[in-house]
């Protein structure tokens, strides 16, 4: 499913195109569209976030150079999707699956794998070149380690190891990805301090994690100072200042506001019944056997994010990406407990098997149909954009050609689909918003 989505899934948000794929194309090929967020005056997007994706394609670049193969630039687009986006998402999903299997039950782990694999929300989130996906994947890995740490309190070496790795993942998710993702690590951080207060393990954890923070901060500052050519800059602070402390009419709300029900409708589309089960599980958490693990590792992060972002006037689908794993896991544990209760009452009878099969079949069918619908009805920009390469092969030329997409500028996938001498340009129209400009091509 992840591989299918990497190849066919749509780009759901033009912000992904212009704020991330275009600057990444600049790193690769020396040109791309520039939004105001990348102006050195504002600097609320970090190049440090893009560098790992640039590095991930080195093997493909080496193969191209050594084999003297001339393939389209959009091969890199799909390589990044397959390896760095979907590939890493699948890796962190597997880590959480194993952790749930070891610390809860194989039934809860299997339900999590089913829910996460086929959720429409996970399907398009897993291919999105967005900091919120980056945060989601590292938070998923952190959650797997946090759950293991909570359940191995009698083994000091394992506790320290799991705790350090979990906190490091939260730090990377927040610093390199999205600063607000740090909120998801607060429950586990407080649990760690409370559990090991004034003990040697806590000192080790604090020391190692402080080193991680320093190294990650140094990486961010070094990379962004190079690209923005400023004396000092820490982009995560700029992001928080813009989103939280901007004056009236200057913050993200200028791009639109939505009621709380926007997220309810959105989660129903992206998770259908799993969304309902995930939040029902919060109430059922009081009756669970592993109450501490569920509360610290799943329930509190889910509640914190839901309340904080539900109260923000400006709402976007991608803002919820970091809690997608918690939605799947919360619903999985609740579902496994419900079926365990039914099994105790009915035994492994025909009706139990029928209910089990029908539940899985219904969820998978509805979810897959939603995924196929997205691909069938909204993937045209990705398929038609390949025609630019075909045009350049059929009519080779070294002169620059302008590509105009009319009022469909927000459907343009990325300059990775353009040959080296093609450039996306805009013409005057009825739209009076602020469209991206061009990165200086001699400074990439």
UniProtKB/TrEMBL annotation:
A Pfam match: Glyco_transf_22
Gene Ontology BP, a term: protein N-linked glycosylation
Membrane topology per record: Multi-pass membrane protein
Molecular function terms, GO-annotated: alpha-1,2-mannosyltransferase activity
Swiss-Prot/TrEMBL keywords: Endoplasmic reticulum, Glycosyltransferase, Membrane, Transferase, Transmembrane, Transmembrane helix
Keyword match Transmembrane: yes
Enzyme Commission number(s) from the entry: 2.4.1.-
Cell compartments where the protein resides: Endoplasmic reticulum membrane
InterPro entries: GPI_mannosylTrfase (IPR005599)
Source superkingdom: Eukaryota
Family: Belongs to the glycosyltransferase 22 family.
Protein's recorded name: Mannosyltransferase
Organism (species): Metschnikowia pulcherrima
